[in-house]
From TrEMBL:
It comes from the Bacteria. This is Lipoprotein. Keywords: Signal. Residues 1-17 form the signal peptide.
């Protein structure tokens, strides 16, 4: 009986180790970039949710929270090895495409706030602060994309 329990314990330990090993994802430049894009999309969603002063205040808080999450993701990105030139090109293309689409969405969302000066001011300040925080990560972004 004791032998059977020992074997069962060993098998359970091995099964748990295999489960945890298969669940752990290793960061790659592409996977972390995808996470960044998801957070940038969430920023866009927050901007689009602003329709008046109250919703703009809530959106500004969400954008601030997302910028903190992005800080953590950028730290993980910075810990990765610098990608090859081909990988950088692929990452650039992915980011450029997403940023172009997102810029248009932000522009449309801000146009929707025309005639709502309080909401426009709140969102403008939130996006300006978000931009400052993203500029602080410029060196990391350059490491994984174009120089300049």
């Amino acid at each position: 009986m004791k032998k059977t329990l020992s074997k069962l314990s060993l098998l359970s330990s091995v099964a748990l180790a295999m489960l945890f090993a298969s669940c752990g994802k290793k960061d790659t430049a592409e996977s972390v970039t995808d996470e960044l894009l998801n957070k940038f999309n969430a920023v866009i969603t927050a901007v689009e949710s602003a329709t008046d002063k109250e919703s703009a205040e809530a959106a500004a808080e969400k954008i601030d929270s997302l910028s903190e999450e992005i800080d953590d993701i950028v730290a993980r990105l910075d810990a990765l090895e610098e990608p090859s030139a081909d990988e950088k090109t692929a990452l650039d293309e992915k980011m450029d495409k997403a940023m172009e689409a997102n810029g248009e969405k932000i522009g449309n969302a801000m146009k929707g706030l025309a005639g709502k000066p309080e909401a426009m001011k709140i969102m403008g300040e939130a996006l300006q602060e978000f931009g400052k925080k993203m500029n602080a990560h410029e060196e990391v972004f350059k490491k994984f994309g174009k120089e300049g």
